[in-house]
């Protein structure tokens, strides 16, 4: 199987560059550059398209709301416009977020048919991307020969190799490696934490089912079971314990300009479990321990490719 990527990421620390993947080629470009994107996708001859390019950080969206909306909404529209010119496509999976739902701060899980919304630019942009995708599908991909398209909404994904800012576990790894305590925002907030390999398997299963004509279009949640939902405090406790060596965390001080982030958030993945046969393989606590081990071993000098292969091998053999 050959994979072809299109996107840009200029961060100094990037897992993709470390892995030097075989059987994979990459086009460096911006999804908002429609002509370049269209040419690259048409030339690829791809059967399946996974759209994951995004500005994915809530706090960054406050600093750059225009760029966030441009990438997450119009970038998605441009990806689907480019897909109209790609004759070989059979299926498209547009990955959005669990934060697309209008968050009522209630205890039960959001289902695919619940109302969309967003109190911050990131969440709103992802909800808007869902609406834009549905409009593009109804307008341009409704005939029988068009590729089947669905959106996928995952929970809070964790796993080694993520070096993004303002994310709990990458922040933890950076702080502990530097000999400092992790500063934790919103310790009582809840999230559907899951290892990145679990939703990735879900995306693959969804794409295979779409391409085979076995799955209806629409939106799909991929998250842990309700009882697996943990607070930020619990995740921080598990992470520093798994790291060992005196690792610690402390609550971040409240500031007058602290930005709003959702308090309670869980999603219901019954549809994917029932229709696709998908289910998480690793419990949330196991995912956190493995993520801590990944960052700790990477800090000790183990190459990222060895750590990724270890996780994938263990995951497959569960």
Task: Produce the secondary structure layout.
Layout (H helix, E strand, L loop, with lengths): L2 E5 L7 H5 L4 E5 L5 H11 L3 E4 L6 H6 L1 H19 L7 E5 L25 H20 L7 E7 L1 E3 L9 H10 L4 E3 L5 E2 L1 E3 L1 H15 L6 E5 L7 E2 H12 L5 E3 L18 H6 L8 H16 L4 H13 L2
Parallel strand pairs: 1-2, 3-4, 4-5, 5-10, 6-9, 7-12
Antiparallel strand pairs: 8-11
Compact summary:
This protein is α/β, with parallel strands linked by helices and 318 residues long. It is built from eleven helices and twelve strands. Helix 2 runs parallel beside helix 4, helix 4 packs parallel to helix 5 (121-140) and helix 10 packs antiparallel against helix 11.
Radius of gyration: 19 Å
**End-to-end distance, in Å?**
24 Å
Physical arrangement of strands within the biggest beta sheet: 3-4-5-10
How many beta-strand runs? 12
Describe the protein's architecture and organization:
With 318 residues, the protein is α/β, with parallel strands linked by helices. It has eleven helices and twelve strands. It has helices spanning 15-19, 34-44, 58-63, 65-83, 121-140, 168-177, 197-211, 232-243, 270-275, 284-299, 304-316, and strands at 3-7, 24-28, 48-51, 91-95, 148-154, 156-158, 182-184, 190-191, 193-195, 218-222, 230-231, 249-251. It has a four-stranded parallel sheet with strand order 3-4-5-10, with helices on both faces. A two-stranded parallel ribbon has the order 1-2. Strand 4, helix 5 (121-140) and strand 5 form a beta-alpha-beta unit. Helix 6 (168-177) runs parallel beside helix 10. The model has no long low-confidence stretch (mean pLDDT 92).
